[in-house]
Amino acid sequence: MTVALYARRKEWPPQEVAVHLRHSRVHARDCADCDTKEGHIDRIEWEIELIGQLTDEHRAKLRDIAQRCPVHRTLMSEIDIRPPQS
């Protein structure tokens, strides 16, 4: 959504933005770039498809915007989920 809004604001012509995700659980010890080293971690592999008549520069900028959107930044940060305290 962030990518589409940005392109629309710049009046760039993407006809469609599609995001493809693959989810898996992997052993933490198999992830060299991860802080967690025990148990399992969730791995999400993503691919963004920009459909339309865009220049290479437009595509590069939109991929950069995708990595800076609020949802991407939240998923890339450490997440601490807790039940409410009563």
Structural overview:
The protein has helices spanning 2-10, 56-67, 70-76; strands at 14-27, 40-52. It is elongated, with a radius of gyration of 17 Å. The chain is built from three helices and two strands, in the order H-E-E-H-H. Strands 1-2 form a two-stranded antiparallel ribbon. The model has no long low-confidence stretch (mean pLDDT 86). The protein has one domain (2-76).
Structure characteristics:
alpha+beta, single chain, 86 residues
Average pLDDT across residues? Answer: 86
In helices, the fraction of residues equals 25-40%
Q: Which geometry do the CA atoms define?
A: elongated
Unreliable stretches covering 5 or more consecutive residues: none
Number of strands: 2
End-to-end separation: 36 Å
Indicate how many domains the architecture comprises: 1
Strand order within the widest beta sheet:
1-2
Main sheet record: 2 strands, antiparallel
| Gyration radius, in Å | 17 Å
Question: Structural class per helix/strand content?
Answer: alpha+beta
Residue share in β-strands: 25-35%
